[in-house]
Amino acid sequence: MGTKISIPQGVMKPRKRNSVTKNSSKGDSIQQNLNINDTRTSTTSLDPSLLCFNNHFALKALFEKNTLPVINENIDFELSTTRVLDIGCGPGSWVMDMATEHSHTQFIGVDKLPLFPQDIRPANVTFKEADVLAGLPFEDNSFDLIQMRLFLVTFNRTQYIESLNEIYRLLKPGGFVQLVEPQLMDQGDDFIKEYTSKLKIIMEYNDYDSEVSDHLSILLDKTRFITKESLRKGVPLENHPLSKEFQYIVHSSVVSCKPFLMEVHGLQTDEEFEEMKTRYMESRKKTESVFTVAVGQKPF
Ligand SMILES: C[S@@+](CC[C@H](N)C(=O)[O-])C[C@H]1O[C@@H](n2cnc3c(N)ncnc32)[C@H](O)[C@@H]1O
């Protein structure tokens, strides 16, 4: 189910010949895929669903609301005909929080995987397993608001555009799309810079836009939307009321990518991974976590 990621020559640190992988639950399968000391391209698998860490309330606190002001000013959430969709909803936190705030509106969350709650949910919420790249099972012009959040490492450039085209089809004329993406942190000490530069090389090699958070308005424009509002906010990972929450998000994202990071950094054991993670978190605390929210409107 994971996304296949190719790691180009020169980025991946080779592992030592004949070394044994110990205490690593996923290390064995990586070891088998990896031709030791071979600097040719390698392929590994990254499961974006694992990145659905508990970030919803931290993002809501950072941006002060679940939606930017232009949405709140233009969508009537008191109407029972108002329909909202969250694509790649993961555990469904945004949908359920929105549905609790706006009990008259109908909310639908879709995800390729059934990560959302199966039984417990507000009465005005429906979840569906569906793949946005295969086309969603909803009529043209049928939603007032559609959100797609945190797809940086999920969709490559082509897939990002395909999903925006599908969002365009589904929105009513005058309807809104809200996109939320993180920035890859390349400020900081040499350790952070090397870590991020490797990630960027791998993403670009696989045609992922490592700077998608800077390009949201361009993507909206390319897919015929009019950008109505865009907001970028950062949280210092130390000495800020939200530092702990955002440190937790960064930590969870590193843990979620463990097999991938072990391959890239040539790590053999859980201990080596823990050491790298601790070093990364210590360096990362001196930096910020930055997110951008952009809102586009489908023309009338
Ligand atoms: C990084 S998570 C983001 C979850 C959620 N949007 C949030 O803000 O917490 C990406 C989600 O997109 C889902 N996903 C990946 N490809 C998809 C596709 N083609 N169609 C629908 N959902 C997809 C994954 O299963 C995962 O739940």
Automatic annotation (TrEMBL):
Residues 20-36 have a biased composition (Polar residues). It comes from Rhizopus delemar. Residues 84-175 form the Methyltransferase domain. Residues 1-36 are annotated as: Disordered. CDD domains: AdoMet_MTases (cd02440). Gene3D superfamilies: Vaccinia Virus protein VP39. One of its GO terms (molecular function) is methyltransferase activity. This is Methyltransferase domain-containing protein.
